[in-house]
Amino acid sequence: MADCVTKVELSVSCTDLLDKDVGSKSDPLCVLLQKSGDQWTELCRTERIKNTESPSFSERLRVDYHFETVQDLKLGVYDIDNSSSDLGDDDYLGGVELTLGQIVSSKTLTRPLQLKKGKPAGKGSITITAEEIKDNRAIVLELEARKLDKKDTFGKSDPFLEFFKQGDDGKWQLVHRTEVVKNNLNPSWKKFTIPLHTFCSGDLEKPLKVDCSDYDSDGSHDLIGSFTTKVSELQKADGSAVEFDCLHPEKLKKKKNYKNSGVVCVKSCKMVTQHTFLDFVMGGCQINFTVAVDFTGSNGDPRSPNSLHYMSPDGLNQYLSALWSVGQVIQDYDTDKFFPAFGFGAKLPPDYQAAHHEFALNFNPANPHCQGIEGIVEAYRMALPQLRLSGPTNFSPILNHVAGMASSAAQADSASQYCVLLILTDGEITDFDQTRDAIVRASRLPLSVIIVGVGPADFKAMELLDGDDGVLRSTVGEAVARDIVQFVPFRQFQDAPVAALAKSVLAEVPNQLVSYFKMRGFEPLKQKPAAKS
Asked: How many domains does the chain have?
């Protein structure tokens, strides 16, 4: 792939979507995919908006733009009715296929949705607007309101805020939507960070409009009031709050003594630099890669051609294919190329007594490191004939072991080290509660967990661990601090180019790394000057 010319941000809205829900409207979400060979790979997705047939998504879709390459994109709109990240069981409302060049050259374009290429969905259209990203600044805002109008008959209002910037055509574009604060006329919303480019196109004097509305589950939200401002005014909330009258246009027209429908207060407004994955890596951050392989009995006898561990005549199986694909990409970010490799769920020589849920793949617990991906493959091939596959499938021992390594890395108190654990497994987790507890604890450490599901099993539990929607909680109700798990079923990529699996598996790691260092308040390390010859 040629060097990225620039980054492009796509904003998406739809009108008149198909209605797939009985008694209510659809709950749409938009997914962006890019074609690589014959394979479509997901790049990113918007938030889900409940109960609407004409959504405007505030979550932007970002993609690298390469001038000299035809970049085939697909935008798909789905009706989401569950918490699973897998779209296979959600209703497809339609999509469009087009190139990034078409979007960029048009800047804004609208297309009818199709159920597949050449087959119209019957109703519904999608509008895509492209903007180049040239700014790495972000704005951090914290807002509250007081004495908002009561809109609900049997309770107070359920207020939320929507922020709009004015486009070149004078139209208002949605850029951010806060959470809803239930039953409260004096709400405080969570502090949020949004790229300055998204928020105001980097122009501190660009007009902004803020709507305060009362949330209704049927999508017919009631406007409480609005005000207009700009970032330069919001910035005055530095040390002292800035207040805005929330005005309802109808009340303003009809009532002589109308003052406002409440006051929105900007408690704080700060400008920060948003560092990228490359900022941290080029600053010297090392990615420490660890592999764990599932040797439980459900994989089948490795001597049988039906086993997932069976070596084909070319010396490969699904486990090794997944390991090669992901490992070849990630090893470039680790300078010493020595990777700890473990197995779990097997009985070991010489006594073959109890099953081990965390053992060194090279049978050397004092030094489980292997030289490069080739070293891990060699250790796997040497170990396989000596093991007796057993069970159950316990993830928590290996998770806790690698979390210990990540905890040591965290003590450096700098953006110098980050850990990635790749788990290759064939089935359901036996110790699910202990595993989610381990993930919640690990979400506060410099660690990402990639799970590749090998074979035909039902991987519903794995999808629950992939906390893209932030719902994963420990057994005592503690929420994950940040999303650290990415699950991918290998079967989706069996006939795809090797790079397609790696791209999907590693898609979330850069953002997870950045989110950890941001949470800790760490800046990228200073780049070392080149050595003099």
From this structure: 3
